[in-house]
Amino acid sequence: MPLPIADTWFETRRYSDDITQIFEPHVIPDIHCNIWHVRGRDHDLLLDTGMGVVSLREHVALVTGKPVFCVASHSHFDHVGSNHEFDERLMHAAEADILTTPTRDNTVTSNYVTADIFTAAPYAGFDVDAYEIKAAPPTRLVADGDIIDLGDRHFEVLHLPGHSPGSIALWEAATGTLLSGDVIYDGLLYDELYHSVREDYTVSMERLRDYKVKTVHGGHWESFGQARLIELIDEYLAGARKPGCPND
Fold it and tell me: Which residues 6+ apart lie within 8 Å of 146 measured at CB?
């Protein structure tokens, strides 16, 4: 049976500290990513942009209020679909070539994008087999320790490879906020993709233990605090959080 047409494609949830979660509710929870918008004095920050099946800029007015630093936590399809809509695109050099020349394989689209991941279609005539990521070469490469300056807020780039070679998280020490992308979230962590490296993931997890975090806003599922962060790290290091859920 054909999918019903969604009335709206995006939903938002406002958190404290001028942070808003944007997500695609008609993509199954295992796949849809959390898009994080942070308001700043001079710039706003957008970590990830979803699948791109519907224009983020045209349908979420929040992302058009100020100049936006569009940051890719990594290059997988569910996180970078609307990156091409933004003028200032930041990501780690290790995956810059993927967004410069995206394919269904290097963005892991071919692994997971089927009709089964949608509970509604974004528009009439949507063809899932024609879905692909548009090229969005980064305009600025970021490395570990770099600062993304919003004027009144400052996020440090943490290069935390393992899930993918260019995976990054953003750390705001002033508020204890970690925007973690797919480095860590409260779900099954995936370390068996074509460019995943478990040994690197272990080092990244061990590094995260040193941060005094108040809130983790992950790339999937719900946000959580310091105690849960330590539990998730320890479970991964002990081998308890086995892959099996296609969170990309």
Answer: 156, 157
pLDDT of 198 higher than 50 = yes
- pLDDT tens-place string over residues 158-183: 999 999 999 999 999 999 999 999 99
Strand partners, 148: 155
- Alpha-carbon distance of 233 to 202, in angstroms, equals 9
pLDDT tens per residue across span 98-120: 999 999 999 999 999 999 999 99
For residue 206, give the CATH number of its domain: 3.60.15.10
| 34 and 219 Cβ atoms separated by less than 8 Å | yes
Q: Whole domain around residue 45: which residue ranges?
A: 11-237
The answer to whether position 242 is within a domain reads: no
Domain contains 75:
yes
Q: Which residues contact 248 (CB under 8 A, 6 or more apart)?
A: 31, 76, 77, 78, 79, 108, 111, 112, 182, 190, 193
Compute the C-alpha angle 136/34/42, nearest 5°. Answer: 65
Q: Quote the pTM value.
A: 0.94
